[in-house]
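HUMAN: Mind making up another protein with tokenized structure?

ASSISTANT:
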Amino acid sequence: MDKDAPIGVFDSGVGGLTVAREIIRQIPNERIVYFGDTARLPYGTKSKDTIIRYSRQIVNFLTNEGVKAIVVACNTASAYALEEIKDEIKVPIIGVVKPGARTAVSVTKNKRIGIIATEGTINSGLYTKVIKEQDSTIEVIGKACPLLVSLVEEGWLHDDITDQIVARYLEELKEADVDTLVLGCTHFPLLRSSVGNVMGEGVNLVNPAYETALELKRLLAEKQLANVKEVDSPSLMYRFYVSDAAEKFKNIANMILPFDIKTTKQINIEE
């Protein structure tokens, strides 16, 4: 495998850009091919079979793009599709759930961990499973927050309506006295300030995007796949594809990433 080959990253929409952003920060020598499935979002309300089918299509696209590793930058796809797909492909593939869960276990003091995520991620029970495998005495309180995905996709990151909905979703987690809260959807780190204001300074906010970038860095080193070449300009380092609404995606991406992207290409992922 060519060390100069890119990393494949995919998500249902713009949320996975939080993972791409952390990869850019933590391992800036790596190239990225990003795919956002904007035509078929949100994933969190879809069935397991549908998520697996979507994920297979995207993984096939990314492998055809010559990637050397794949990051499933979507908690729902990580929960439902990762185990199904990992043995079907020749490149290493990781998700965002396990790195986030491990970090939550390491930082909680009162052993009460909250998870905010999509309905699909919460219903999968994967966060609870991974957490309890490490410490069976931890209580996990999950809360599905489906509206937050749509608000992020609309670009309403700093809006009074968004703040009100965040506060309403988090009410029961505050009452449950969690001291650690996992932002269990890659869209949610974009609402970190709103979540932090509601939960207060005493609650650890775990961003699986950051932990996943560190996991990827370790994986590339272990597999001897880390790129050692000099960094090019962002326009040459990163390629962005979507299944719909390319211009809208680009505008939001330019709010999230540390540089402006010039083009986003729309493709029919089902072909």
